[in-house]
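re: that complex we talked abt at group meeting.

here r the seqs, copy pasted straight from the sheet so there may be weird spacing, ignore it
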Amino acid sequence: MSQSSLTLLQQTSELRQAIRRKEHTGPTSGLATGVMQGNVVILPADYANEFLLFCQNNPVSCPLIGVSEIGDYSMPMLGKDIDMRHDIPEYYVYRNGDKVESRTDIEALWQDDMVAFILGCSFSFEHALSQAGLTPRNIEEGVNVSMFETNIATTPAGRFHGNTVVTMRPYVPKDAIRAIQITSRFPKAHGAPLHFGTPEAIGIKDLSKPEFGDAVSLREGEVPVFWACGVTPQLAIRNAKPPICITHAPGKMLVTDILDTDLAVF
Amino acid sequence: MSQSSLTLLQQTSELRQAIRRKEHTGPTSGLATGVMQGNVVILPADYANEFLLFCQNNPVSCPLIGVSEIGDYSMPMLGKDIDMRHDIPEYYVYRNGDKVESRTDIEALWQDDMVAFILGCSFSFEHALSQAGLTPRNIEEGVNVSMFETNIATTPAGRFHGNTVVTMRPYVPKDAIRAIQITSRFPKAHGAPLHFGTPEAIGIKDLSKPEFGDAVSLREGEVPVFWACGVTPQLAIRNAKPPICITHAPGKMLVTDILDTDLAVF
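got the structure back, here u go
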């Protein structure tokens, strides 16, 4: 492993420790760039197999990169000493499909039958886009990425069903083409976009009013480009109504020890 | 080599022979699919080095796949027994930059100082698009692809300069994204598109009036997608005004023995 990779993993470990100590409770976008960040879904075992199938059925919006053993809050395949009860800056807690609270740890809520799922996140390719000179507008403007619910149905699995959530980043067409090439290399981070251009074609009414995250500016000649988003499961959870479900707060992810490039293709 | 490849090369040889006997003088689009077809530029040696640099400077519109020895009308790196004087269905002859005639052979015009250049052609990726279920509209409608002069300047070399010519194929955004991925695999056939969406952003006024080839229909929800085109050199030749230059007629290409897949990446 190179010296720069070692330095990055040291930074990653420090960031995860700072999150664990609740010193960092904000978004993780732009931090520890170069390692994968993950969307989090924690469910009771009774719902876990159906959710596993839901991810399998919807690999673009739900690219699974890690699943815990039942009741085990570590995640050894994604990083040393990960504690799923503490290592997310902010958790959302859903009961019967409704979001009831947000917390900075879930130690008091952890159950012996819980299974944690980690899904790849578009932050992985944001790093690659920035390195190619195509810095996403949300990073330029220092805000959370814009996220929208679409009318693109997911493939249901058991009690899990709902529409796909997308992130949006604006580019001029020439740069959008390059962005499609670059993000295609990262299938475990949602890969290529689902759509570009007309928001209404996928059921988005107003780009200035994202359902999650922040609005970003569109400039002359730019088109909105839409990628599948790991917030998609949160809509399916609302529909599945499990007695309890815990997710990350949008934009505040699990920081792993896996390099983005480790899961890149080509 | 597989049996199917042998069969394809037999078909290719027969097509080239039919062209040589002037039995086939039409477009080569959709014929001998699976082998590369080439754009043709034949110039006197005095202009050849500058044109070689022009191709090097503009590799997306002018992806060189073969260059002959001075005065040699064979092209052994691209096929057995190719005769550049006879093996194109229709030639255009330019004198001092003006097109003066079209011919079905150039035996009477061949000079000892001539150099033939062969450039990759988007027909190579049309085959891959069709296999992926994204059959280009021009193939569906049985016409020549639409070609347009843009306001995108090429990088000049000596006396050669001019704007880029593009081909246009309409797709809905979802399919355009897949088409970008597929055509990216074929850098020697112009690779990924240069632009999509607004034609006016690249200087195209009316999609129903292509400068070369035929118009195709745009359907509800589709956007035009634009790829660089091997007709680009013909504009540069008009500007360079060599005493003589011979090209293929748009859509009527040199059929080579090289499989499309031989020059694909990934």
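couple things i noticed - Chain B has two domains: 3-120+239-260, 123-232. Chain B touches chain A through 19 residues (CB under 8 Å).
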